[in-house]
Amino acid sequence: MEKFTITTTNDQYDVLIDYGLRHQLDTLCRSILEGRKKALIISDTKVYPLYGEEVKKSLARLLPVAHVTVPNGERAKSLEVYRDLLTTCIEEELDRNSIIIALGGGVIGDIAGFTAATYMRGIPFIQVPTTLLAQDSSVGGKTGINHPLGKNLIGAFHQPSAVVYDIDMLQTLSDKEWLSGFAEMMKHAYIQDPNYLAWLKEHVNTLDDIKKPSIRSSIRRSMKIKATIVEKDEKEAGIRAFLNFGHTLGHALEKVSGYGELTHGEAVACGMLFAMRLSNTLQLSTWDIEEEKAWFQAIGYPVDIVFQYEPEALIEAMRLDKKRTSKGLTFVLLKKAGEPMIQTVKETIVRQLLQRKEASS
């Protein structure tokens, strides 16, 4: 079993990665679970039928367990679903000695974590990720929901008590979900580890390559990069903002396309490539855009989809992004792999690039 510990200013928790861990939650998390009044599993309508009862059975060896399911996908991160989850917490008589189990992908981690962060001013929760995308979102304590005007505008920092990653559960992912998660692994390599990026480019050049057994070691490497950054900057006051590489345009694409039409990772992949083009335009870098684009396309990312949407609609969405400043749109740019930087960019420059499909410099 792969295991490492994340230490932040006020919290410390273990990340466990292996096959079959969903059957061992009572053993692996005994010190967290024992003596608590009740556990509430929050999952979605797709994941719970696959794994929910197995997780419930494991937890029930230590404490009473209830469960609730929410709609599958980004639509679950709404004010309405959040309100319903709070109602469930009250009806199930959860108290501050209870615990929430987030069983699902990044969306479930976000909304279950936000429910835990705000119910009775905060109760503990355990992340049990079921997607490749959640290798990023399950670490670091960012929780939240969407507002109709923008993604993740409502949220809180609330660290989990543990992350238990059973990679057996990745076997039921769709191709789009594999692609969504791998984009975040690419992001970690681009911003932090040129050697890791070179390894990914050598070993992953098709969708099928992402699914190979070597993914286990890659997941650990990616999560360790995220953990190292979070330990240094828990509340995104500095270097943690680099983890937003690809997300300024990515979040705008998710909103403009209609939440759920593009996966988070597909949108972020488009955003990363755009950020590299922008870095070149501002003469901060000399990326070979055609080479990078060819890699993205070979794996299966729809990198040109950005040009299907009106530039003004995308810019308006970026204006509402929580990373925006009064001076322009804020992007994470790359001088080169491992050298990210925060840059405020004039809207006119962004607009010009969004209008030119052939832009490559």
TrEMBL record:
Location of the 3-dehydroquinate synthase C-terminal domain: 181-323
Cofactor note: Binds 1 divalent metal cation per subunit. Can use either Co(2+) or Zn(2+).
GO molecular function: 3-dehydroquinate synthase activity
Binding site for Zn(2+): E184, H247, H264
Binding, NAD(+): G106, V107, I108, G109, D110, T130, T131, K142, K151
Known pathway: Metabolic intermediate biosynthesis; chorismate biosynthesis; chorismate from D-erythrose 4-phosphate and phosphoenolpyruvate: step 2/7
EC number: 4.2.3.4
Enzyme class (EC, first level): lyase
Record's catalysed reaction(s): 7-phospho-2-dehydro-3-deoxy-D-arabino-heptonate = 3-dehydroquinate + phosphate
Pfam family, one: DHQS_C
Domain of life: Bacteria
Stretches assigned to coiled coil: none
Compartments in which it is found: Cytoplasm
Similarity section: Belongs to the sugar phosphate cyclases superfamily. Dehydroquinate synthase family.
Descriptive protein name: 3-dehydroquinate synthase
Species this protein is from: Aliibacillus thermotolerans
Native organism taxonomy: Bacteria, Bacillati, Bacillota, Bacilli, Bacillales
